[in-house]
Design brief:
The protein has five domains: about 130 residues, Immunoglobulin-like (Sandwich); about 90 residues, Immunoglobulin-like; about 90 residues, Immunoglobulin-like, CATH 2.60.40.10; about 100 residues, Immunoglobulin-like (Sandwich), CATH 2.60.40; about 160 residues, Immunoglobulin-like, CATH 2.60.40. It has one helix and 46 strands. The longest helix has 16 residues. It is flat and about 110 Å long. The relative contact order is 0.08.
């Protein structure tokens, strides 16, 4: 649209305003005449509403005229707004008597009225537009039996449906049911979750408020006894076996016969999705699974009353074992972690398998334990401590054997060598922000000889892997005048057990379909290729550890540097939790990145909540 056609439109809108039929034209002029002949100021908006999503703008036009309604050129107009952000390219009226401006919500997604005021030589005009579109929703089960609990989810979104992060949400229960927290903070998706325990029978209304909005969810807490009586919480179910699921429902001790119950599970296959209660008030289905890991089993009646239990499917038939050492080369008196991973024929990780460790070592080293039991990740671990004597290359052999089947075994060879080179890793207290989404932390790696002198020209390889991740959230502590991290679960072991970057069978512990935590951070040499560099004249090299800001303080990693001399490998590792910039946790009005852990805020490592 050209300036002249736009002016025609504005003048027509002004004419309509004179008839009292416009919601986008502000008042102006009237009684008092300011100076320099200004008699009227009209402020117009291109729309009566402004979407709350970021980047949305509307046009503001100010028309200045004299007592004869003639447009006045060269008049300075002072524009102001009680909210949002105004941009005024040229505050002096043009030949058409108009000053143009643009208005945005100014980063505030709150639904509200915004008034723009124009002052031309003391004559005022104004227009009011409404910021709209921000929504708040609350969802969860509509019924719970007394004593049970459930997760309720709050979603705060702008006019484009994009989640609004870092906002405080207050939650309450009208009937006094127990809330895990009464104040929540939205995550990067605009979501927040609260665990509600049904402690007060009767109809309840849960209420969430944020940015002036209110959302409610009705919930009926029954005095029924509605519970999964088999399997029990934390029960282990062997793969490929059939387990019975029983839901028992009574009211005042009276069995509820002939009632339909719906069943579901996050892992495994159910024999039926719906079953009717018998004369004892029990509905029964069965479940089996071919892959290992935790599962949440749920049961729901027609009224919406729901209950759940978490179990774990486990593999119990070992087929293979892999034994690894970290590091493979160590100096006299140093220690190496020996880890055995046991899998079944379908590559599932085997839990509760006893692994026997045998040491062949003429140098006098020793193991911390002769046996260990595999965990849910199929891992059993012991530690080798070298003596003061060096060994031949690969002269220390440690064998892991599955106790229930000695034919299943695997060995790893270590070398105890006099250190010709020593590697050290260190960092400072500075965190850099190369952009608004990432942090960068510098690490200095030095290679020195036995006399402590830096060694020039040594090729060093570095890598970084995730070890553990954590769940939880940040909250603002007024006494500390800072945001404080609250951990709800963890450390949760990284699921890539064999470190091959692939989600293998049995590794998906939380059933998400992806590896958690995964390779969150990267390491880049400042003078080198990728993570590799050659030491300078002082034996140093600088590497950058780079990671997304929303993962800070939620992931523990290991930075490792390795080099070799005449075939002998030397390594040094540094374990640390990815740090956060202190400036990002000291402002009450601005939530830190990753205000909710990217991995969720539930109390369990076995889910994605």
């Amino acid at each position: 649209m050209t300036k002249f056609s736009y002016l025609a439109t504005l003048l027509m809108a002004l004419a309509l305003a004179a008839c009292g039929d416009s919601t986008i034209t502000g008042s102006g002029g009237g009684g008092a005449i300011g100076g320099a002949g200004v008699a009227g100021v009209n402020v117009l908006a291109s729309s009566p509403t402004l979407p709350s999503t970021s980047g949305q703008t509307l046009s503001i036009s100010v028309i200045v005229r004299d007592a004869n309604n003639v447009a006045m050129e060269g008049v300075t107009v002072i524009l102001s707004t009680d909210s949002g952000t105004l941009t005024v390219p040229e505050p002096v009226t043009d030949a058409s008597g108009i000053v143009f401006a643009s208005l945005t919500a100014g980063g505030d997604p709150t639904n509200r009225a915004v008034t723009v005021t124009a002052d031309a030589n003391g004559v005022l005009g104004s227009v009011t537009v409404n910021v709209i579109g921000t929504t708040l929703s609350l969802s969860g089960p509509t019924a719970l039996p007394q004593g049970d609990s459930a997760i309720f989810t709050v979603v705060l979104a702008d006019s484009s449906g994009i989640g609004i992060a870092g906002q405080t949400v207050d939650v309450s229960s009208s009937n006094g049911n127990t809330l895990a927290a009464s104040s929540l903070t939205t995550d990067n998706a605009g979501q927040a979750q609260v665990d509600v325990t049904a402690s007060a029978p009767g109809l309840d209304t849960l209420t969430a408020t944020a940015l002036g909005l209110t959302a409610t969810q009705d919930m009926n807490v029954s005095d029924d006894s509605f519970a999964l009586t088999a399997p029990l919480a934390s029960d282990e179910i062997v793969l490929n076996t059939i387990a019975q699921i029983d839901l028992t429902w009574t009211i005042a001790g009276v069995p509820q016969a002939g009632q339909l119950i719906s069943f579901g599970s996050t892992r495994g296959t159910l024999s039926a999705l719906v079953a009717a209660t018998n004369a004892a008030g029990i509905a029964t289905v069965t479940i089996t699974s071919t892959n290992a890991g935790p599962a949440v089993i749920t049961a729901t009646n027609a009224a919406g009353t729901s209950t759940s239990v978490q179990v774990e499917f486990v593999a119990d038939t070992p087929d293979s074992i892999d034994v690894q050492a970290n590091p493979f080369t160590l100096g006299p008196g140093e220690q190496s972690a020996i880890t055995a991973v046991v899998r079944d024929a379908a590559n599932n990780l085997v839990k509760n398998a006893v692994v026997l460790f045998d040491l062949q070592d003429v140098t006098g080293g020793q193991l911390s334990a002769p046996s260990a039991v595999t965990d849910s990740q199929g891992r059993a671990q012991t530690f080798y401590t070298a003596s003061s004597t060096t060994s031949a290359n690969g002269g220390v052999v440690i064998t892991g054997t599955v106790q229930s089947n000695p034919l299943i075994n695997n060995s790893v060879a270590l070398t105890v060598a006099k250190r010709e080179l020593f590697i050290s890793i260190g960092t400072g207290n500075s965190i850099f922000e190369p952009n608004t989404a990432q942090y960068r932390v510098e690490f200095a790696i030095q290679v020195s000889d036995s006399q402590g002198n830096g060694v020039e020209g040594v090729a060093v390889q570095t890598g970084i892997l995730s070890n553990n991740y954590y769940k939880g959230f940040w909250f603002y502590d007024a006494l500390a005048s800072a945001w404080v991290q609250n951990l709800t679960a963890g450390p949760c072991a990284d699921e890539d057990v064999n470190r091959n970057g692939v989600l293998d069978a049995g590794e998906d512990f939380n059933n998400s379909g992806r590896i958690e935590a995964g390779n969150i951070a990267t390491v880049v040499a400042q003078n080198g290729s990728g993570g590799n560099f050659v030491t300078d004249a002082a034996g140093f090299g600088i590497v950058d550890v780079i990671y997304a800001q929303d993962h800070a303080r939620w992931v523990e990693v290991t930075l490792e540097a390795t080099t070799s001399v005449q075939g002998t490998e030397f390594a040094k590792a540094s374990n640390f939790v990815l740090p956060i910039n202190g400036d990002d946790v000291d402002s009450e009005n601005e939530a830190p990145p990753g205000v909710i852990s990217p991995f969720g805020s539930s109390a369990s490592c076995a889910d994605t909540l």
